[in-house]
Design a protein that fits this description.
Strand order of the largest sheet of chain C: 6-7-8-3-9-10
Number of helices of chain C: 11
Shape of chain B: globular
Number of domains of chain C: 2
Strand order of the largest sheet of chain B: 1-2
Chains: A mainly alpha (291), B mainly alpha (336), C alpha/beta (261)
Distance between the termini of chain B: 24 Å
Distance between the termini of chain C: 33 Å
CATH architecture of the largest domain in chain C: 3-Layer(aba) Sandwich
CATH class of the largest domain in chain C: Alpha Beta
Largest sheet of chain B: 2 strands, antiparallel
Strand content of chain B: under 5%
Structural class of chain C: alpha/beta
Strand content of chain C: 15-25%
Oligomer: heterotrimer
Number of domains of chain B: 2
Largest sheet of chain C: 6 strands, mixed
Helix content of chain B: over 70%
Order of helices and strands of chain C: EEEHEEHEHHHHEHEHEEHHH
Number of strands of chain C: 10
C-alpha cells in the first residue's frame, strides 16, 4: 500500500513535468497554428543545455532554468524559420513533414554532439526525503513541482497582462484579423513558438534532474506524451493540457506499478486512444483555431 | 530540355512493346549480370523498400493522410511470418497473405478512432502505435522471444527449390513488387482511386459529391497497411532473424524519407526514392551517424524546393500552392 | 407539384451564438427559390444544415419525404441533393473533365475487386462515366475547356464547372451558394439565363445571393434572413414591399425607406 501511494506521488511529480511540456505544446499549436513533431528534440536540447551549465557553473538551479529556456528559445527560432515561416499559406502537410525532417535532424545532431551514451546528471539538489505519515516526498520532487507552478504562473501573467500576451492571444484566435489590427503576425508566431519551446526546454531540465540522467534519444517518446496531454484540451487549451500532463503522469506510474517498467510508454498511447474514442475534441469549450 | 523529353516520349510511343520486352528481359536476367553478392544485396534492399515505400505512398500520396509509423505495420507482418513459420511450419506463400490481412485489420482498428479528426491525429496515433508495437515485441517474451528475437526463420521454397541467397530472393521481391504496382495501378485508376484522390485534393468538395470520406479513408489506410504487412512477411525469412530493434521509429522515418524524396502521389516516386535513399545509405556507410542527418536535410530541402518530391504528382495539392503563380503566367500569355 | 425540401423550426447554435434560429422554409418542386439577407445573416450556415455539413441543434429537415436532419452529407447527396460552395471548391489541379467524372461517384458501383479484375461492372461504369461526363459538359457549354485544369480558368467559368459537377450527381434539387459573387454584370446575366435553363430542364433550385436584381428577376419565392431569423417569405413583390426587409437592409429613417425603389 505504501508503495502504491508513493508511486502515486511520483506520478504526480512526473505529471507536473509532462504538464509543462504539454503547456509548451499547446502554446505552440495555439499561436503558430501547426502541430509539431520537434517538441521532444527541443526538450533534449534544453536538458543538455542545463547539463553543461551545471557542469561549468556549478549548482545554480536558477541559472540552469534560464540557460535551458534560452537554449530552447534559440532552437525554437531555428524550427520556426525552417518549418513555419514560409508555409503559413501552403497546404498543411508541408509544414508537418518539415517538422518531421527537423526532428530527425535535431535528434541525430544531438546524438553526434552529445554522444550516444547516457550521461549522469550532477546532483544539484541535496536529496532529502520528507515524510508525512506514509507519504514520502523528496526535495527534488518539491523543487520540480514548484518550478512548474512558478513558470505556469509567469506564463499566465504574460498572456493576460502584457502587450505581448494580447498579440499572442490575438494571433492564436485569428491571424488575418490580427494582421489587420497591425500586429506583426510572423514575429508574434515566432515568439509564441519560442515561448513554447522554452517551456519544453525547462521541462527537459526537470526530467534530467528527476531521472538523474541525460541522453540524446530521450526525446522520441516525449513528443507523443506532450501531444497526448494536449489532446485533452483540444490541442490549444493551456490549462486542460496541463491537467492532461498530470493525468498521464499518474496513469503511467500507476500502470507500471502493476505491470513492468518497460511498458511505460504504452499507457500514454492507451490514454490517447481512449480520449480520441470518447472525447475527440477534448474538453475544451473554446472554439478556437484548430490545426 | 523539353524537346529532349518530347523526343523520348515519341520514341517510346513508337517502340512501346519492344521497350517493355527489353525492360522485362533485363529485369529477369539482372542477377546473372551482377556477380557480387554485396551488390545483389543492395539491389534486393532497393526492390524491397520500393514496395514498402510504395505502400506508404498509397496512404500519404493518394489520400492525403499522413502515416508516420509505417514501421509498426511492417513489424507486425514480419513477426506474424516469423512466429507462424518457426512454430507452426506454415507455408511462406500462405503467410504472405495472412500477414497482410492481419496487418490490414489492425491498421483499420488503429485508424478508426481518428476518422472524426483532422489528419494530424492519425499521424500521431501511427507514430505512437509504431513504438507500442516495438515495445510489445520486445516485452512479450513468450511469443516474440523478447530481446532475443526470433531465430532460424526458414527460407521459402518454390517447386522444391529453396530460395535463400539474395540472387534468388531478388525474384521474390521483384514478383511482389510487380504485383503491387499492377494491382495498385488498377485501383488508382478506378472509382476507388478517384475517390481517394478527391479526398486529398479537397475534402469538402468530395463530401458534397456524396463520397463517403470515412469509408474511403479507412479503406485506403487498410490497403496501405496490407502491403506493409506483406512486405514484413517477405522480409522476415530474408534476414532469417528478426528482433525489435529492426522496427524502431528511425526505420519508419527511413521509409517516410524514401516516399518524400522520391515523390508522393505517383507509382514511380517511391521506387526512385528507394533507389536514391538506399544508394545514399551505401555511400555513407563509413559515416553511418551522418546518414539520418543527410536524410533529414534532404527532406527539408524537398519541402522547400519541391514538396511533391523528385517525380511526385506535380498537379496536386502535394506540390504546394503553385497554382496562383501559374495562373498569373497563363493570364499574361493570354494578354499577349 | 408538392413540397420537395422543407425545414421546420431549424436552429443552429455555436456555443452562445445563435447562427440560425427557428427558420421554416418550404421549397416547391420545380421552383427557383432565393435566400437573401445581409452579411452574417446565417444564410450559408442554413445551407450547410440543409446539405448535412452541420447537424441542426433543433428542428427538422424533410427532403423528398425523408427526414434528413443530422444525416451525413454523402447520404443526402445520394438522396438527390447537390450543392456548390461560396468559395469555389473545385479540384483545381484536375482537368474540368476529371472534375465532372468525380461527380459520378454515387452513380457508379464498382468496388476495389472489380477494379483489380477489370470485371464487366467496372468496364460498364467506365463507359457510363465517360459518356455521361461529356454529355454534361456539352449541356453546360464547357466542352472546349474539358482538358483545361480547373484552377486555371476564369472565375465565372469555375462557377459553371462547379455547377456541372453538381449536375453529375443527377440531383432533384441544387443548392447554389452565391453563384454570382465576383461576376461582372454580363456574366451575371448569362448565369441567370443558365439557371433558368436548368430550371426548365426540371431541376429545383435554391440560391443564396446578394445581388438583389438577380434574385428579384429570377426567383419565384424568396426567403429573407436577418441575424439568423426569418423575417419574410414570399414572392418578390411581397418581399419588396415588406417593411422589415427594408429595415434589415437599410435601417430605419426617411431616406432609408426609399432604398429599394
Amino acid at each position: 500500500m505504501e508503495y502504491i501511494i508513493n508511486q502515486f506521488v511520483n506520478g504526480i511529480c512526473q505529471g507536473f513535468i509532462y504538464a509543462l511540456m504539454a503547456v509548451g505544446y499547446s502554446v505552440i499549436v495555439g499561436v503558430v497554428g501547426f502541430v509539431t513533431f520537434t517538441h521532444g528534440e527541443v526538450i533534449v536540447f534544453g536538458a543538455f543545455a542545463s547539463f553543461y551549465i551545471f557542469l561549468l557553473c556549478g549548482n545554480n538551479l536558477l541559472l540552469g532554468v534560464i540557460g535551458s529556456f534560452a537554449a530552447s528559445w534559440l532552437i525554437g527560432i531555428f524550427v520556426y524559420k525552417i518549418c513555419y515561416e514560409r508555409f503559413f499559406h501552403a497546404p498543411r502537410h508541408i509544414a508537418l513533414i518539415c517538422t518531421i525532417g527537423v526532428s530527425m535532424l535535431l535528434k541525430n545532431i544531438a546524438q553526434i554532439i552529445f554522444g550516444p551514451n547516457k550521461k549522469p546528471m550532477l546532483n544539484i539538489i541535496k536529496n532529502k526525503i520528507y515524510s508525512f505519515g506514509i507519504v514520502e516526498i523528496s526535495k527534488v520532487q518539491i523543487v520540480i513541482i514548484l518550478t512548474v507552478i512558478i513558470l505556469s504562473a509567469l506564463l499566465f501573467i504574460i498572456f493576460m497582462k502584457t502587450r505581448w500576451g494580447i498579440s499572442l492571444r490575438a494571433v492564436s484566435q485569428d491571424k488575418t484579423a490580427a494582421a489587420m489590427m497591425g500586429i506583426n503576425v510572423k514575429q508574434t508566431a515566432m515568439i509564441g513558438n519560442c515561448m513554447g519551446s522554452g517551456l519544453a526546454g525547462v521541462a527537459g531540465l526537470l526530467i534530467a534532474i528527476n531521472y538523474q540522467t541525460v541522453y540524446a534519444t530521450m526525446g522520441s517518446n516525449l513528443s507523443i506524451k506532450a501531444f497526448a496531454a494536449a489532446v485533452l484540451g483540444g490541442l490549444t487549451s493551456v490549462p486542460l493540457a496541463a491537467l492532461g500532463g498530470i493525468l498521464i503522469g499518474i496513469i503511467e506510474n500507476m500502470g507500471i506499478t502493476f505491470t513492468s517498467a518497460s511498458l511505460r510508454d504504452i499507457f500514454t498511447f492507451v490514454f490517447l486512444i481512449i480520449i480520441l474514442i470518447f472525447k475527440p475534441q477534448g474538453f475544451s469549450k473554446k472554439k478556437g483555431v484548430r490545426p | 530540355m523539353k524537346h529532349f523529353i518530347d523526343t523520348i516520349k515519341s520514341t517510346y510511343g513508337k517502340y512501346k512493346v519492344i521497350v517493355w520486352i527489353i525492360c522485362s528481359l533485363l529485369l529477369l536476367i539482372f542477377p546473372a549480370l551482377i556477380p557480387s553478392n554485396y551488390v545483389m544485396g543492395v539491389v534486393c534492399r532497393i526492390l524491397f523498400y520500393a514496395t514498402l515505400a510504395g505502400s506508404l505512398n498509397v496512404i500519404n500520396g493518394y489520400s492525403g493522410q499522413m502515416c508516420i509509423g509505417h514501421a509498426g505495420f511492417f513489424c507486425i507482418g514480419a513477426y506474424i511470418e516469423a512466429i507462424l513459420a518457426t512454430q507452426y511450419h506454415i507455408n511462406f506463400w500462405v503467410l504472405l497473405l495472412v500477414g497482410g490481412i492481419i496487418t490490414a485489420i489492425i491498421g483499420g482498428l488503429i485508424a478508426l478512432p481518428t476518422l472524426r479528426m483532422q489528419g494530424i491525429y492519425l499521424s500521431i496515433i501511427t507514430l505512437g502505435f509504431s513504438e507500442v508495437v516495438r515495445l510489445i515485441a520486445l516485452n512479450w517474451t513468450s511469443v516474440t522471444g523478447g530481446a532475443m528475437g526470433v531465430k532460424g526463420i526458414k527460407s521459402p521454397t518454390l517447386l522444391g527449390f529453396t530460395l535463400s541467397s539474395p540472387k534468388q530472393y531478388y525474384y521474390i521481391f521483384l514478383v511482389i513488387g510487380i504485383v503491387f504496382i499492377f494491382v495498385t495501378n488498377r485501383i488508382i485508376n478506378s472509382r476507388t482511386g478517384s475517390a481517394w484522390i478527391s479526398i486529398r485534393e479537397d475534402e469538402l468538395a468530395a463530401r458534397s459529391l456524396g463520397i463517403e470520406i470515412k469509408k474511403y479513408k479507412i479503406l485506403n489506410f487498410m490497403y496501405g497497411a496490407f502491403w506493409a504487412g506483406v512486405m514484413g512477411a517477405a522480409y522476415a525469412p530474408y534476414t532469417r532473424y528478426i528482433d525489435s530493434t529492426y522496427f524502431s521509429l528511425d526505420e519508419g522515418f527511413n521509409i517516410l524519407s524514401m516516399v518524400i524524396i522520391g515523390g508522393q502521389g505517383t507509382l514511380i516516386g517511391p521506387i526512385l526514392g528507394a533507389a536514391v535513399v538506399n544508394s545514399l545509405t551505401e555511400l555513407l556507410r563509413s559515416f553511418s551517424e551522418w546518414r539520418m542527418v543527410a536524410y533529414a536535410v534532404l527532406i527539408i530541402a524537398m519541402m522547400w524546393l519541391r514538396p511533391q518530391g523528385l517525380v511526385g504528382a506535380s498537379d496536386s495539392v502535394l506540390a504546394g500552392d503553385k497554382m496562383k503563380k501559374k495562373k498569373i503566367k497563363v493570364l499574361a500569355k493570354e494578354e499577349k | 407539384m408538392g413540397t420537395l425540401l422543407e425545414t421546420q423550426n431549424v436552429c443552429k447554435y455555436f456555443g452562445g451564438l445563435k447562427a440560425v434560429e427557428n427558420v421554416d422554409m418550404k421549397v416547391e418542386k420545380g421552383d427557383i427559390f432565393g435566400i437573401i439577407g445581409p452579411n452574417g445573416a446565417g444564410k450559408t450556415t442554413f445551407f450547410n444544415i440543409c446539405s448535412g455539413f452541420y447537424a441542426p441543434t433543433h428542428g427538422k429537415i424533410i427532403f423528398n419525404n425523408n427526414d434528413i436532419s443530422g444525416v451525413s452529407p454523402d447520404k443526402i447527396a445520394r438522396l438527390g441533393m447537390a450543392r456548390t460552395f461560396q468559395n469555389i471548391q473545385l479540384f483545381k489541379y484536375m482537368s474540368v473533365l476529371d472534375n465532372v467524372k468525380t461527380g459520378f461517384h454515387i452513380k457508379t458501383e464498382s468496388t476495389m475487386t472489380d477494379a483489380i479484375l477489370h470485371t464487366n461492372r467496372y468496364k460498364k461504369d467506365k463507359e457510363y462515366v465517360n459518356e455521361k461526363s461529356i454529355e454534361v459538359l456539352k449541356k453546360v457549354g464547357l466542352s472546349k475547356y474539358a482538358e483545361t485544369k480547373a484552377g486555371n480558368l476564369a472565375y465565372g467559368i469555375q462557377r459553371k464547372v462547379e455547377i456541372a459537377r453538381a449536375l453529375a450527381l443527377d440531383p432533384t434539387i441544387i443548392l447554389l451558394d452565391e453563384p454570382a459573387a465576383g461576376m461582372n454584370p454580363n456574366e451575371t446575366d448569362s448565369l441567370r439565363e443558365f439557371i433558368k435553363q436548368l430550371n426548365e430542364d426540371g431541376y429545383t433550385i435554391v440560391v443564396i445571393e446578394h445581388d438583389m436584381k438577380f434574385v428579384m428577376r429570377s426567383c419565384n419565392q424568396i426567403l429573407v434572413l436577418s441575424f439568423g431569423q426569418k423575417i419574410c417569405e414570399g414572392t418578390p413583390e411581397i418581399v419588396k414591399a415588406d417593411e422589415q426587409v427594408h429595415q434589415a437592409y437599410f435601417g430605419k429613417g426617411i431616406i432609408a425607406g426609399k432604398g429599394l425603389q
